[in-house]
Specification:
Layout: H1 23-48, H2 54-89
């Protein structure tokens, strides 16, 4: 036996029984859909991250500081030498 349902929500026995979404409800639902998906995906990716230990963090910080100082000294000395050469030439 096949049951036929009326496409009109106001008619008893139709499916779905709940009324359709209004345009404002639909737009609000769509407005929050993408940010909710983004937050969900970010939390999934953050669970996959392997965070460094305190010791690894200290070592990496030390390497960055030392290399920054070496680069600063190199740039300072190059600038000083080139400035003196330009003063001699001109």
């Amino acid at each position: 036996m096949v049951e036929l349902w009326s496409p009109k929500p106001a008619v008893a026995g139709s499916s779905p029984v709940s009324p359709a979404l209004t345009l404002i409800q639909y737009r609000l639902m769509k407005l929050f859909e993408k940010p909710a998906k983004f937050v969900s995906e970010v939390s999934q990716e953050m669970a996959k991250v392997s965070w460094p230990t305190y010791e690894e963090l200290k070592e990496s910080t030390l390497v960055v500081i030392v290399l920054s100082l070496i680069l600063a000294i190199f740039i300072f000395s190059s600038d000083t030498v080139l400035s003196k050469l330009l003063k001699i030439i001109f």
